[in-house]
Every structure is written in C-alpha cells, then in structure tokens.
Automatic annotation (TrEMBL):
InterPro entries: DUF2867, Epimerase_deHydtase, NAD(P)-bd_dom_sf. Keywords: Membrane, Transmembrane, Transmembrane helix. Signal peptide: none annotated. The chain crosses the membrane at residues 449-470. This is SDR family oxidoreductase. It holds the Pfam family DUF2867. The keyword Transmembrane applies. It comes from the Bacteria. Residues 3-93 form the NAD-dependent epimerase/dehydratase domain.
Length: 472
C-alpha cells in the first residue's frame, strides 16, 4: 500500500515508519522542514518526502494516489497556551488536503476518553477525532493511555523521579488509576490496523493487561531497576505546586508538566473490545515494557524521544532558517586548534553533552543548567537520545541540533536556554583545523550586558572544551 505519514519526526511516527517499511509499504512522509528528514529512512527506496506544514498548508500538495494515511500530529508538548486551537487547525487542514485524494482509511492515535471529567489534553484529542471524521475516507481511531517505551515522555519522567529520589513526598494524583501500554504494542496496533475494513469508522481503546496507579508504576519501575523507594502522598499539593514539582525533578518543560498534571488527575481505564483478537496482539505487562525499554537504552538503540520534538523546547521556526550563522549585530568567540586525529575529534564532537558532559568545567555547565531551570528554561536534564549519534532536530541538553554532518565535518547547535538574545555553537573542521565558534545575537541592552558578564568564563570554559576535542 502507498501510505501517507504525518508527524514523521515525532516519537511514534518515526518508529512506525520503520515498521511499515519492514512490511514493504511505500511511504509518503510529511515533514515541515526537508532538512530534518530522519537518517534511518532518508535513503530508503520505498520512502519519499514532501514538505507540509499543517498550520500553513497553502503550498502543500498531497499525492492523489495514496491508499491510507496516519494522523500522528500532537501539540501537547508545545510551549503555546493555545495548543487546543493548534490541534484543531492541523486536523482541519489535514482533512482538507486528504479528502481529494484516493485515501480509503485514516488511522489516528488518540487518548482514552472514558472518564466523566476530561483534561484539556484529552478533550482536545476527542475534538480532533471528531474533526477527522469524513464521508470520503474511513477513520480508525486507537485510543491509548500511558505509553511506556524508551524515549516516551511518561517513561522518561518516571525514570527521572525514581532514579533521583529515594524518598518522595508526592501529590495525591499518584493514586489515579491507568492502564500503561508498551510502545511496541502501540506500533503493532497501528501497523496491524492498516487496511482492515472491519476497523473502518470505529474507535478502539488499546491498553495493557494491568490497572495500576501512578504510585504503583513508580514502585514497579524501581523494582525493575533494583531500587528501594518510599512514597508518601499528600493532599495539600495544588496542581500548580505539582507542576513545579514535576518540572524541577524531571527533564520536562513547565508547560508539559502542567498538561501532564492536568491529565494525571483523570482515570485512564479502557473499554473492553475484540481489537486484540482482530489484530492478533497480546500486550505485555508494565514491568516487561520497562525492562524492554532499558534493553534499548543499554544498547544505545533508542530510535526516537519526545525530547527531540522541536515543540519540546523553545524553538519555533524551521531549523533551516537558522543554519547560516548571522554576523550583523552579533558577538563572537572563535577558537581554533590543529587536528591530529580527525576521526577521534569528530567522534568526540558527536558525543558531546548528555552523560558525556562538555569535557571542561562541567560544574559550570551544570550551574548554568540549574539557573536556566530556575528561570523557566529547559536546563540540562533533557540530555541526549543517543550517546554517539546526532541528527538535525535532536535535543542536546539546553541546545537544539540544527545541522549535523560528519561528511562535512560540521555540527551546529542553537541555544534553547533562557537568554536575552539568540546563541549558536558551531564545531567545524577545515584544512586540519578545528574551528569552534560561539555566536550571540543580543536583544537590547540586557543582551549586551549578558554577553560581557559571561565573557570572562569563555576564556577557560571554551578553551578547555576545544583542547579536549583535539587531544587524546
């Protein structure tokens, strides 16, 4: 089948594309930025890519000869307060573009919406589902609860909490019940539902075999990791305080933390159906899902992460608009060293940040991350998805990868920390010389004052970093 996929660079779609290619489907992948095509599928003979921004679809052209489409666009992690309006716009524009094609089925991944009182997020998901319904194609909706897998938002947040806090004083919503589902089972439902006419114009809850509270999920996660954890829940923590608690303990943004707290107050229990039998799936239990996720992490084989969604940080534009470093009205710190072993230096550059640190004065980098977190920024806790691999769009601590090419020997990062201006950090090898360039475009007088305030630290921090990149 010829299948259209939206949200190609997102957590679910990136993994689903690989699974559909294994099943020999031909894919038409929608991306907002053609410079951000996932490396894993970029050169695949069954893949083609089209530039589509579903918020601005004026110039978009969807091929007429598609058989089915996946709607996997999600705005929950966006920093915008009006994510509900954004989701509606995307769904409406998608529908207008797909209806004139030969598409027979649209598959949509939503959330379980059985509770009498829904969160803003789940209400938005239900509205999107209703918007996508059409008389020209059949809609198949899979409604999932908490998704557990390496790189998923829920998994990474639980991991942060469990591994950092031996004793926890937690909000009362930890007693809310849910039915977690392994990401591999989510993908199997999505792939298995493709082309099945008996699923046309129906919605199905998909969920794991256990009903657990969030507290039980934390404790079972700790068991899998061989950790002893103690949890006390208090009724006095308000939603706002709970959001701050999540924000400071985990790698999530405050906006996402607030959205999650709002959702976690709602029970997510699925309605029984025959969907497992129709597709032939027996979902794994929660502990198995956690164990499988860590197998991927230990193999450094995490395909996608919620943190790599551009909307998970402060970046709003297409990456390609920022690839060329500005010069007018900018401050620069440029350093250069001779490269004696090019492969060694490139590997060090591609491994920078995350658990590997920044090779020089890591305490100061951590301090800058803490300061950023205090002022509402992303901090250093996002880390990186892979310890050795980078591609455009990846989160790298409080940076966003704009460009990464080992062939061109260039890595370009854009700062997502709280700054009175914009900042870039570039590493490039030219004629056996490593060029390390920090560029800052200040915004007003505060931007200029900020540059001069941090300039003394550049002398030893950036010198130490470039020296570590060239010396074995």
């Amino acid at each position: 089948m010829r299948v259209l996929i939206t949200g190609t660079t997102g957590y679910i779609a990136k993994r689903l594309a690989l699974q559909l290619l294994e099943d020999d489907h031909e894919l038409v992948c929608c991306v907002r930025d053609l410079n951000r095509i996932p490396d894993e599928i970029e050169d695949h003979p069954l893949c083609s890519f089209i530039k589509v921004d579903f918020l601005k679809p004026e110039d978009a052209e969807i091929p007429k000869d598609i058989d089915a489409a996946y709607y996997l666009i999600h705005s929950m992690s966006t920093s915008s307060d009006d994510f509900e309006d954004l989701e509606q716009q995307c769904a409406q524009n998608f529908k207008k573009l797909v209806e004139p094609t030969n598409c027979k089925q649209v598959l949509f991944l939503s959330g379980i919406v059985n509770d009498a009182s829904l969160s803003k997020h789940l209400k938005s998901r239900l509205q999107v589902e209703n918007t996508l319904k059409s008389e020209t194609y059949a809609l198949t909706t899979f409604r999932a609860g908490i998704i557990v897998g390496s790189g998923s938002a829920s998994f990474e947040i639980i991991r942060d909490i469990v591994e950092k806090l031996p004793f926890m004083i937690t909000p009362r919503w930890l007693n809310t019940k849910t039915q977690p589902l392994a990401v591999r089972d989510v993908l199997n439902f999505l792939a298995g539902g493709l082309g099945k006419t008996e699923l046309y114009n129906n919605a199905y809850d998909i969920y794991g075999p256990e009903v657990l509270t969030y507290k039980e999920m934390l404790l079972q996660f700790a068991e899998v990791r061989g950790l002893k954890r103690y949890i006390v829940t208090l009724p006095v923590l308000t939603p706002k305080l709970s959001s701050y608690w999540l924000y400071f303990v985990t790698s999530t943004s405050f906006k996402l933390a607030a959205a999650l707290v709002d959702s976690m107050k709602v029970e997510v229990i699925g309605k029984p159906s025959d969907i497992n039998t129709i597709i032939g799936i027996e979902p794994v239990d929660y502990k198995t899902a956690v164990d499988l996720a860590f197998q991927k992490i230990e193999q450094n084989a995490v395909i996608s992460s919620w943190k790599d969604a551009v909307s998970s940080g402060r970046f709003k534009d297409q990456l390609s608009k920022h690839i060329e470093l500005p010069t007018f009205g900018c401050f620069q710190d440029v350093k250069q060293r001779k490269v004696t072993d090019e492969e060694f230096t490139l590997n060090k550059i591609w491994a920078i940040g995350g658990r590997n640190g920044w090779y020089s004065f890591n305490g100061l980098w951590k301090l800058r991350g803490y300061m950023d977190k205090l002022f509402g920024g992303v901090g250093l806790r996002r880390g990186r998805t892979s310890d050795t691999y980078l591609e455009a769009g990846d989160a790298l601590d409080f940076w966003r990868v704009l460009y990464a090419s080992k062939e061109e020997k260039r890595l370009l990062l854009f700062a997502e920390m709280r700054l009175p201006g914009e900042a870039w950090l570039e590493f490039k090898i030219v004629d056996d010389q490593l060029q390390q360039r920090a560029v800052f475009r200040p915004k007003g007088i505060w931007g200029r004052l900020y540059w001069y305030a941090v300039l003394p630290f550049h002398a030893f921090v950036f010198n130490g970093m470039i020296n570590a990149l060239v010396k074995k």
